[in-house]
Amino acid sequence: MLKYIMSTRLRQRVFMGIAGCFVVFILGYYVLEYISTMEDPPLGNTVYILIGSALVFSSVIGVLMIIKYLYDYKKQQERRDRRRKKHKLFYLKDQKKETDSD
User: Fold this and answer.
1) Which of 26, 42, 79, 91 has the highest count of CB atoms within 10 angstroms of its CB?
2) pLDDT by position in tens, the chain (length 102)
3) By the 8 A CB rule, do 12 and 18 touch?
């Protein structure tokens, strides 16, 4: 599964990552809002509050890291293009043609 994800295009990987973060966010929100407010949950309210908060926080951090990766990737591409433009190949003029025309 991991090989398939890494072999896909950048935009598809980003979409899958953001979709995964969205699912984790919804799960964390559910745990935080509904399970932790129950009257007597199995492990206690504090555990579910911590788990829900951690899931929500990690999903937000995941989205921010994906956006940062995209921004850095675009900047890196721009730097490569600028380097290529600086070092264009050029050919010297043929001196025989210049001397013949003089």
Assistant:
1) 26
2) 556 656 668 778 888 889 999 999 999 999 888 887 777 878 888 888 899 999 999 999 999 998 888 878 777 777 777 777 666 666 667 666 656 555
3) no
The CA distance from 45 to 36, in Å, is: 5
Buried b vs exposed e over 17-29: b needs ≥16 C-beta within 10 Å? beeebeebbeebe
**What gap in Å lies between CA 64 and CA 86, rounded to an integer?**
33
Q: Is 55 exposed, middle or buried (0-12, 13-18, 19+ CB in 10 A)?
A: buried
